Amino acid sequence: METTVDDEIATSKKAPSGNRPGVARPNAVSGCALTAALAAMGGRWKLFIVYRLAEAPMHFAALRRSLPEMSAKVLAQQLREMQADGLVGRSPRGAVPAPVIYALTPHGRSLLPLAETMRRWGMAHQDFRARSGNPDIATDARAACVIGVTS
């Protein structure tokens, strides 16, 4: 039996990286709770994702539309990391290619008071910079992150 180029290509393909189970990242400074927290919630987009999922679970596409500056690749990567850290749950709805719903886990919801505190500190920092003559010129209305968290 003769093999063709198409047969060789078909057998050499790998599964997409999104289909592999996530593994939580190791703590950068062993035993340090601060670096563990920063690894789980740090990065440019994770708190934005937390804010978007705080109100209701969302399909990947809806989450992607709500964060237009983030690429689909980065969103998928951040969601995988958050899932591995137990912050986000992933629920496929039906047969492949089914829509997938992402939601905060109870552990992920525990981030909301901290995120709200950081948001308020950020607002105070922006005010401080404005009063100091160095206003935050990178403010973008699309990055608004207000949820119903009370102090």
Description:
- The protein has 151 residues and is mostly helical.
- The protein has a single domain, classed as Orthogonal Bundle (Arc Repressor Mutant, subunit A).
- The chain has seven helices and three strands; from the N terminus they run αααβααββαα.
- It has helices at residues 5-12, 33-41, 46-55, 60-66, 72-84, 106-109, 112-131, and strands at residues 58-59, 88-92, 100-104.
- Strands 1-3-2 form a three-stranded antiparallel β-sheet.
- Residues 3-16 have low confidence and may be disordered.
Amino- and carboxy-terminal Cα gap? 72 Å
In terms of per-residue confidence, which ranges show pLDDT below 50 for 5 or more consecutive residues? 3-16
The total domain count is 1
Large-scale geometry: globular
Q: How confident is the prediction overall: mean pLDDT?
A: 78
Key descriptive features of the protein:
single chain; Arc Repressor Mutant, subunit A; globular; about 45% helix; mainly alpha; 7 helices
Briefly summarize what is shown.
With 151 residues, the chain is mainly alpha-helical. It has 7 helices and 3 strands.
List the helices and strands and how they pair.
Elements: H1 5-12, H2 33-41, H3 46-55, E1 58-59, H4 60-66, H5 72-84, E2 88-92, E3 100-104, H6 106-109, H7 112-131
Antiparallel strand pairs: 1-3, 2-3
